[in-house]
Amino acid sequence: MALLRVVDRDGNEHEIDGNTGFTLMENLRDLDYGVGAVCGGMCACATCHVYVDAEWAGKLPAAQSDERDLLQDLSTRRENSRLSCQVKFTPELAGLKVTIAEDE
Prior knowledge:
It is a single chain. The protein starts with a strand and ends with a strand. It is globular, with a radius of gyration of 12 Å. It has one domain: Ubiquitin-like (UB roll), CATH 3.10.20.30. It is an alpha+beta fold. The mean pLDDT is 96. A five-stranded mixed β-sheet has the order 2-1-5-3-4. It is built from three helices and five strands.
């Protein structure tokens, strides 16, 4: 377990105990204020879209081509956008802060 800071769509910040070894999406999908995760983590729908806090963006592995392609189609995409299903939550990411993106 490690600290994961999540800003919901109303701007409220929550601190949760995230399961390391799981993806961000797996940590966020069951929260009342979490992500949709319609495709279950198959990188096929972008309903797990989050914005990664600027101080953490460079610490994540680069997005692969399938993730980049899905993000390109989003009107809510930002430079710090990621699909949470594609980011493994590791102990090194303890304290990570993400904001749940607006619905498309």
